[in-house]
Design brief:
alpha/beta, single chain, seven-stranded mixed beta sheet, 7 strands, 209 residues, Rossmann fold, 24% strand
Length: 209
């Protein structure tokens, strides 16, 4: 059986209202991700959420007093429709990765449970670094599917979608090769039978390396 596109699966989930459950399930990890992303912020910033779903993270970021522009992109039609219905004044884009790019570069990039659905996620990190971010910008990426979390290894088969399974070390090296510096990785919410959410953070150098 041919694999389905992840965006088709999430489109159906949004139509069934499952996006709210995703929001509740990911909230604890995302709260930690946002703490990392916004730590030490003292000047106005712009931010984009990759794989924004119904836009809940975009709305949280937009509430920050120093946020000048918060936007999100998702490849699932119904997810973007949900985001626009909840937040008609917000900036939500329907776009397929890795082809879609923002019109303007941003200070911060956030992404939760998205990048491993790409066929070449490490190559996409180069695109984010080169085409999405301003010098000195910061990125934080969260994912539950990775080598050190074996409970997630059957997801590609159970959902019948492509997932790129990489180790923590591979993700760290991939970010470094893409040009990021100060690359850090933590696992949050780990339990006896669950590796937790892998959270990667890094910055784009102020000057080309």
């Amino acid at each position: 059986m041919d694999q389905r596109k992840a965006t088709e699966v999430f489109h159906e989930w949004a139509e069934k209202g499952k996006d709210e459950g995703m929001e509740r399930g990911h909230a604890p990890s995302v709260d930690i991700m946002l703490e990392i992303l916004l730590d030490g912020v003292t000047k106005p910033f712009s931010v984009i959420d990759i794989g924004c779903g119904n836009g809940w993270v975009v709305r949280k970021l937009a509430q920050h007093p120093l946020c000048t522009r918060a936007s999100g992109v998702d490849g699932a039609v119904a997810m973007v429709e949900r985001a626009k219905k909840i937040d008609p004044e917000g900036s939500y884009y329907l776009g397929q990765l890795p082809e879609w790019k923002p019109e303007q570069t941003v200070d911060f990039v956030h992404s939760m449970e998205c990048l491993y659905y790409l066929k070449q996620p490490l190559e996409f990190l180069h695109i984010v670094h080169n085409d999405w971010m301003k010098p000195g910008g910061k990125v934080v990426i969260g994912m539950d599917h990775y080598t050190e979390n074996p409970e997630s290894h059957d997801w590609p088969e159970s959902l019948n979608v492509h997932m790129t399974t990489l180790s923590i070390d591979a993700w760290i090296k991939g970010m470094q090769v893409a040009g990021f510096e100060d690359v850090r990785a933590i696992q949050t919410g780990a339990k006896e039978d669950w590796g937790g959410t892998l959270v990667l953070s890094a910055t784009k150098p102020l000057r080309p390396q």
